Amino acid sequence: MKNILFFCLLLVMTSSIFVLTGCGNDDDGEVIVATCDDGIQNGNEQGVDCGGSNCEACEVGAHGRWQSAGIDISPLLASSYSRLVIEFRTDGTFTYDQTDLDGNIITTEGTFIQTASSEEDIWDIILTQTNPSITTEGIFRASETIMEYEVVQTNPPIEGFAPPASTAGFGSTSGGAFGEDNIVIYNVF
User: Fold this and answer.
1) What is the rounded distance in angstroms from the CA atom of residue 68 to the CA atom of residue 79?
2) How far apart are CA 56 and CA 35, in angstroms?
């Protein structure tokens, strides 16, 4: 009988140790590291698999690769180009491929700054092209699949053209003189 009692007491004590260690503090000071490719926002990621100290920056605003062709090219550009492809990278650089009506591709590159404006969903953008040196300013609105984009070359300036203003909205190039003729519709590419 003593053996059975001793065995039961030993069993209860062993079970208590497992229960007590299993109920300890789960925060053992271990840092959860962002994995950047698991489909989960973890570590210090600012979004799912982006941002923070370990992952690529999150895409916001115009970030991504966009294409415009056919009727989506603004009437002001359609007389010169059949296809426009622009890629805005999270490091603040861009590449712009313009296919002319003869099929020649003109590629320009540079840097850009995008800033959320006080107007709902409209962003301000300044592009600084490196060769030739050109500055372009304007506005855009982007969803996951479509971007409305209206910009004007400001340096060197083009006579009769002034950039659109986010406060005036789309169609405000040169104070609205061109209506919607300077708006390009881009699709995610």
Assistant:
1) 14
2) 11
- For each of the domains in the chain, give its residue range(s) and CATH number, in order of start: 31-58 (no CATH), 64-188 (2.40.128)
Distances (CA, A) of 110 to 41, 106, 142: 31, 14, 20
CA 38 – CA 181 distance, rounded (Å): 43
Q: Tokens standing for 52?
A: 């923070």
Residue with tokens 């690769």: 65
Q: Are 89 and 113 in contact (CB under 8 A)?
A: no
Instruction: Write out pLDDT tens, residues 103-146.
Output: 999 999 999 999 999 998 999 999 999 989 999 999 999 999 99
Residue 31 has a pLDDT of 67
Residue 66 burial (C-beta neighbours within 10 Å; 0-12, 13-18, 19+): buried
Please write the tens of the pLDDT for every residue from 75-110.
Answer: 999 999 999 999 999 999 999 999 999 999 999 999
Query: pTM for the complete prediction?
Result: 0.74
